User: What shape does this take?
Amino acid sequence: MDDVRFTVLLESSQSFPEQKWEAVLWHNGHENKEWKELALQETSSPHQPLVIRNDSRPSLYRRWFSIDLVKPSRPEPLYFTLKYRLSASDTWKWVNEHFDCSDGALYFQTEAPPEGLVNYLRDYSQDFSVNQVESETPNTQLWSLTSSVKAAAGKASGITDTSLGIPRSFGRWFSLVRIWSPWLGPRHGEGQFSPREDAVLSSFLRMDGLHLVLLAVSGVDEVLTVFKPDDNGNVIAHSRNDSMEEGQARVLVAVGATFNTALAAVMYHARKIVLGNDLRSKAEKEEMQHCLDKGVKAEWMENWYDGLTYCTWNGLGQDLNEQKIFDALNVLKDNGIQITNLIIDDNWQDLDNHGQSQFQRGWTDFDANKEGFPNGLKHTAIEIRNQHPNIQHIAVTGAVCLQMEILQRTTRLEKSARRKDWLEVK
Assistant: This one.
């Protein structure tokens, strides 16, 4: 890419006279990094950005401005902001001040990514055994790192911290962290790596535009690994071993031109590690063979793992019913969002203690509640498939944390637990 086109749209209400707007790009894309301005030229036939297209907005004047910015010679990010004004006699308004946003940044990628892990992680521990492995994602590099973790002693888990060093030459970082045991959340920042919670995945946007992704692999041999920062910004692999034998921490590292490709590289390889034949239990092997005998193909699982999924919990809340689900799916469809998987989350069940918090309510029946799902979940699933053939998989979740007092309040749950026909939709 030799240059970058900037396009700016200025909108004003038609309730006022139209003005001759001006727009200027400020950037530091010069040899000495000095900030200079570049006047944008008004254009009459823009390529309209999709993110601001909205035909339902009131009548507005729209003026478009554009300029081509030459790619700087140095392999570093270019920072920019914009200013605009109503007319030559008006004062300039800075975008980052008026809209409370930081300067924008452009990262220009190198044509030949460096080879070798040492070019991406500085001073990682020699306790790691490093193996470069073949990536299933094109144009990515992938490494598998392993190190030993102390065995548990009695009731105390074995804990081992092993440094992955400091990622080289990065501007921003992103992590998925464990907010608490069942929930993950995003964290991001600039400069030193410093998430407050334990991270299971961390990504770093390098100054050369490449993306470095680290994934802590858990669930193998009773070892759980997360990432923590130390005071100097090192990424520490913090591993807990619940086995009475010495365990092994596993970390995957990938580099790619985009976050998505680097993420896919570590995820695909993690799947091999966690679901590989050598590490599967007898029950898991039998379950997989049963799926294959039933005609389940690899494409089915690939869509389930990698397809776009919509979960009802955050969007529709705890007071769930089938009409809310139908309406949400129609909104997605009307906006061209094609999901392949739907998760009907908690509170479809028949629950007691209506009106109290979710922590005070318990299951009374495996059937869906009659108010929200008058014809049952099977009817809901059939209607969804009829109206949205793009949805290939429908999952229903429920926290089966049944306390004795819940069973004592009703026998319906105990009876319905023996049923196997409460939802049979292929």
The chain is about 20% helix and 35% strand. The radius of gyration is 27 Å. The longest helix spans residues 259-275. The first strand starts at residue 3 and ends at 13.
